[in-house]
Amino acid sequence: MRRPTPSFWRSCASFGRFGTNFVAAPFPRRSPSGGLAVRCFSTEQLWRGVRSTSFSKNLDFKDGSESTFPVYRVLDADGELEPGVELPFSLEEGVDMMRMMLKSKVYDDVLMTMQRQGRISFYCTNYGEEATSVGTAAALKPQDMIWPQYRELGAFLWRGLTAQEIADQNIGNEGDRSKGRNLQVHYCMLEKNMQTVHAVLGTQIPQAPGAGYAYKLDKEDRVSVAYFGDGAASEGDAFTGLNFASVYGAQTLFICRNNGYSISTGVEDQYKGDGIAARGPALAIPTVRVDGNDLVAVYIATEAARKKCVEEKTPILLELMTYRVGDHTTSDDSSAYRKEDKEEVKKLQGVGPLPRWKKFLESKGLWDDEKSKEVEAAARDEMIQAMKAGETKKKPPLRELFTDVFSDLPWHLEEQAAYAEKHCREYSSEYNMKSVRGLDGPAPTVDPKRIASAPRVLPPAPRGEVKETTMVQAINDALSIALSSDNRSVLFGEDVAFGGVFRASVGLRDKFGEDRVLNAPVAEQAIAAFAVGLSVAGYKAIAEIQFADYIFPAFDQIVNEIAKYRYRNAGGGAGNITIRAPCSAVGHGSMYHSQSVESYFAHCPGLKIVIPRGPKQAKGLLLAAIRDPDPVLFFEPKVLYRARIQGPDGQVPVEDYELPIGQAEIVQEGTDVTLLGWGSQIGRLQAAAAKAAEEGISCEVIDLQTIIPWDADTVQASVEKTGRLIIAHEAPQTNGFGAEIAAKIQERCFLHLESPIQRVCGFDTHFPYAWEEFYVPSASRVLAAIKAGLRCWL
Ligand SMILES: Cc1ncc(C[n+]2csc(CCOP(=O)(O)OP(=O)(O)O)c2C)c(N)n1
Ligand SMILES: [Mg+2]
């Protein structure tokens, strides 16, 4: 097979409209002398990304059965090691692993009993899978970052999680590291390089490569390790995670525990191919299938995979074949669906990791039944005592309900925290006050400054030289400054390397190199997830979603992962994440290139949302967003990208500057009515205000700029002055962010209002192609609302 040369691709790229497009046929090209220089390539040279272009006249369908995966095993069911195989660890370490596996089993016994006694509400055992977690964790190094699913108790124990921490977490008391916020068994131990267990299946799989890529950039002897089950492997996140890791050569170890079940669903109903392993080679990931009940094989495979991962800068996939002996959780009864009968389960238990490893150690004279009893009794006692101690502890203070949503409490959470404290004291008989720390004491005093919506820290105002700049240039400038002022920052997204489809990142790859300005495979959920991994590894992640309309595949990663990361970890955030996305109407975009999506995300705690109205705002706000300790969604009205903006908004300071997130700006002062909007709507509000002025009506125009946390005080002060409020946004009216503003402002300004608060919004239809001019809240619709509001008063 002839592989095309790099110089071929370079010349090929020069034909493409965007430089990287697939070229279907060679174009004739003008020679320097003016004549046509025809360059011919054979067809197969143009088929990129396949290993073979040899032709065949046979119509040969392949179904994957051509290749199979033997199961790597070195310790048989009788505990006998294959001849010639050396133990990869000392016998002493082998005994430690036996203790740990036994401890995991006994803790499971005790906690399951506690659940049955009603002392904890839920539990999930690890029976039969002890070697998959203890064996892998033991073969990893302490610096390796583990992204667990939920059945990896052994790995947590190996990394040092104590009985007391386990008890406190399962009870959800004030001793719990995540402040009682997580469901049982969702352990939190960040300082030992263990990510917190989270409930959404598969989301950790594309997150791990973000950290794995960072370790590669930092040339570290470190891997990122994602554990997941055979069920989770069906999630789209699993595919995109494996693919991202492969494309980026991220130092990532994927460990699938294939235990035959996903709750009641057997693997027969989960997939039809050859297990999970078969998926690795399809994505060029070195893969091996291992007997997950063989502690020695698990250890050898993990150690070798780890080494290969770091040395060859490649992800590795391990499929560990095991069996879920217990029920899925304490909410489950597996006898209702289990395919194997009781005798078979017993047999499978017999070849499980504990009996097998015990036999081996017994053969070496290092273990016996007495030893088992002794270890079991000590572990049982330890957990019972820990539970008793945990039950005497209170729940964390009520205020902790509100902390860690953001790095600091924004005004609306201060307001809600104060309300909650006051309410539960007034209605104390309705609540279990004694169980919560601090509720029995005096109510904490409320600092009015913290309830004020203005940003608490203001960056210095920009000074110096300004330059007339378009919004897209201003964004490019901000990205360039962000990348040069922090070399631990990475910019990535679809087509970003070549400059992005809107050219916002043009030239940045040349400036900052291919390691820091990356094209992403087309998978928005993996783009968002990759940002989590980078951020966990201490990088600033600047991601681009090509159009806001295509942010929805990433919705889960954004609202369930990025937004909740700080809260579920009780601080310590993956906050260094900025997601940019071009949004809103563009004149011809129809329903999939025009949406304004801010209110979907405004509903979710933990995300800041910013929308600039012009070049000056775009640069200053984007730099502030990138440096903000919380994740920020930065929506850019794409219709403004190349618009010529008259006046100061188009005069962009050349220096590095930030504009404050959380502050609205009064764009134009007035006395009769307040017009409030954001992004491209501001121009329409100004046009409406100008028309109203011709009729002697004075409008105050406010650009909200930040949707969350929004600046209620500025709006309130304006409405107290004008007595009228019109909110305009392109997004559909129902449940748009205007509804939230209207509710809050009528609460605060009820006695000042001269007319009902009005909304001028997109209609509750999908964004239309043919009727765009009627759909967007035009200046004349705003003008009509202004007049209606004034008539109301007359
Ligand atoms: C996205 C998502 N869908 C559904 C669930 C509900 N759920 C919890 S565990 C589970 C089965 C997972 O099976 P597997 O990945 O094989 O892990 P195992 O329980 O076998 O260890 C399901 C469907 C979930 N937590 N997240
Ligand atoms: Mg499973």
Automatic annotation (TrEMBL):
Pfam family for this entry, one: Transketolase_C
Entry GO MF terms: branched-chain 2-oxo acid dehydrogenase activity
Gene3D superfamilies: 3.40.50.920, 3.40.50.970
KW Oxidoreductase (keyword) present: yes
Domain of life: Eukaryota
Keywords: Oxidoreductase
Leading EC class: oxidoreductase
Domain Transketolase-like pyrimidine-binding: 469-643
SUPFAM superfamilies, A to Z: Thiamin diphosphate-binding fold (THDP-binding), TK C-terminal domain-like
Listed InterPro entries: DH_E1, THDP-binding, Transketo_C/PFOR_II, Transketolase-like_Pyr-bd, Transketolase_C
Needed cofactors: thiamine diphosphate
E.C. number(s) listed in UniProt: 1.2.4.4
GO biological process: branched-chain amino acid catabolic process; response to nutrient
Catalytic activity from the UniProt record: N(6)-[(R)-lipoyl]-L-lysyl-[protein] + 3-methyl-2-oxobutanoate + H(+) = N(6)-[(R)-S(8)-2-methylpropanoyldihydrolipoyl]-L-lysyl-[protein] + CO2
Protein name per its UniProtKB record: 3-methyl-2-oxobutanoate dehydrogenase (2-methylpropanoyl-transferring)
Origin species: Symbiodinium necroappetens
Taxonomic path: Eukaryota, Sar, Alveolata, Dinophyceae, Suessiales
Gene: bkdB
